[in-house]
Amino acid sequence: MRPARTALWLRLAVALGLALVGPLPVGWSSARAPIYVSSWAVRVSQGYREAERLARKFGFVNLGQIFPDGQYYHLRHRGVVQRSLTPHWGHRLRLKKDPKVQWFEQQTLRRRVKRSVVVPTDPWFPKQWYMNNKVQPDLNILQAWSQGLSGQGVVVSVLDDGIEKDHPDLWANYDPLASYDFNDYDPDPQPRYTPSDENRHGTRCAGEVAAIANNGFCGTGVAYNARIGGVRMLDGTITDVIEAQSLSLQPQHIHIYSASWGPEDDGRTVDGPGILTREAFRRGVTKGRGGLGTLFVWASGNGGLHYDNCNCDGYTNSIHTLSVGSTTRHGRVPWYSEACASTLTTTYSSGVAADPQIVTTDLHHQCTDKHTGTSASAPLAAGMIALALEANPFLTWRDMQHLVVRASRPAQLQAEDWRTNGVGRQVSHHYGYGLLDARLLVDMARTWLPTRPQQKCAIRVVHTPTRPAGGALTPHAAPSPILPLMRVRKNVSACAGRANYIRSLEHVQVQLSLSYSRRGDLEISLTSPMGTRSTLVAIRPLDVSGQGYNNWIFMSTHFWDEDPQGLWTLGLENKGYYFNTGTLYRYTLLLYGTAEDMTARPSGPQNATAPPTSWATSAWPTALQGTSATPSRQ
Length: 634
Ligand SMILES: *[C@@H]1O[C@H](CO)[C@@H](O)[C@H](O)[C@H]1NC(C)=O
Ligand SMILES: *[C@@H]1O[C@H](CO)[C@@H](O)[C@H](O)[C@H]1NC(C)=O
Ligand SMILES: [Ca+2]
Ligand SMILES: [Ca+2]
Ligand SMILES: [Ca+2]
Ligand SMILES: [Ca+2]
Hints:
Keywords: Cleavage on pair of basic residues, Glycoprotein, Hydrolase, Membrane, Protease, Serine protease, Signal, Zymogen. Its main location: membrane. By secondary structure, this protein is α+β, with helices and mostly antiparallel strands. Helix content is about 20%, strand content about 25%.
């Protein structure tokens, strides 16, 4: 008798959950503690009369039978709070005691999403091949939308040459608080119109993120209900001050900054952010978004034609920026793409002339299907990240990078350098962890348990004092000539026994000072104790500089989640002119990560039976304010 009843209860509960529950708050997950509502399902032996009697006796409203056979009734109690974390013990006791009640259950909120796919009606949506399911796999954005996500409450700002704020496909999402003009120092980022329309870039990027859906015009943005701002800063003199101001505009209001710019992509520049801009990044990730950290989404660069390497660009290779590469409709490496170890993920963009391009808003209230390059990839990722942030607004900047690593797939992307790293993930210098999947990203975002605070473990491997303070130099302290091939090995404990011990890696940096007769001929690689080899910089034929690297920081994402203990090998190899010479002066290995064994977490969406401690015990982050309808002012 008992087992059969249990089974019936279960089936009934499922049926009720599906049938009776209306719209639910977005981001609420059934995996968390149950939330009780003011209604009950009751099974009585003598049908309608009995149900009426019960209702009168205990003060319920009888909402009628649940099935036509008249055994199950739906009762509501007006005196019970609408939503509660505990069941109503009084009614529970009374119903339990009543001999005519065979079974009852107070109802709880259930998260149910429509499985039907929401397809926007915009006339150009059928042209948006990277998200309308025409290409397999695409960015899986339809599936994220089908869960009710659209970027609601998330604020994105595009740092570029301005934004046409009155564009018919942008105006309703335009957010003046997320906008500024640092070229003319005024609040209006409207682009400067020229005969060649050169200042159309920012408007195009903005439409990719947040073009309005279902308005009978143009296409749809990835996060079509997000608020979108524009910072006009590329149309004029650019200084460290202007970059820093742009990157720290309204850090409590703007959640995501999308940037598609950097030093010259000429294949011979080694350049990065100045002091103020580095400080802006640092402040952004530590103080922005109520302390959860601003999300800086960055395009990897367009210097492919010049054999540029994005690890020579200090913006995209910063650990604070989430670097996005490109692939074509057919999963090929585009001609403009730069390969490097700091790229985290990839989205679609243009390729050769025959390949389709990106559909978005354009200047003069138009739309275009001709948006191209790595600059078109970063805003698509920014939009997908906005969907993830709507699914879970409590993610830190590092949580988001963890999620992007896990939500990227090699899919059908072609490259000669796919390798499996020490934790079994495939990674490539062209694509990072592969094609970003919005559905995976939001599913994992919803149940992600926060990562512990970032630890940093710095290991000075080669260090030449500028003024040797007497005594003999140890072998490690002597400057070392770089022969055709030089390997520097170091057995690393990863700060074991200290507070900054690292068990699971996130970013790894290598800071180098070296001289070299022809910089672009030197290939530098790093191999981890788990055997993952990452190219920190490949040869750049156009980089003929004799200046070497002066404390330059290379970064790799390829060791993510690996255990850093053991032997690290830095490789320096002449890949060009036979008579090249140089000297290694300084080499510091910088490990970032946490003491948690991240590989012990289950892959895919996690159990969140208990809310993460940071939600339950600490005050809710002020980032919440930024996601509400009233913007925060801080
Ligand atoms: C690295 O050092 C540890 C501790 O001294 C030692 O146990 C281990 O064998 C060393 N590994 C290598 C590859 O030398
Ligand atoms: C996740 O949930 C499943 C089933 O509910 C359970 O068997 C498993 O142990 C849980 N895993 C963790 C890590 O809590
Ligand atoms: Ca799809
Ligand atoms: Ca202006
Ligand atoms: Ca539209
Ligand atoms: Ca570049």
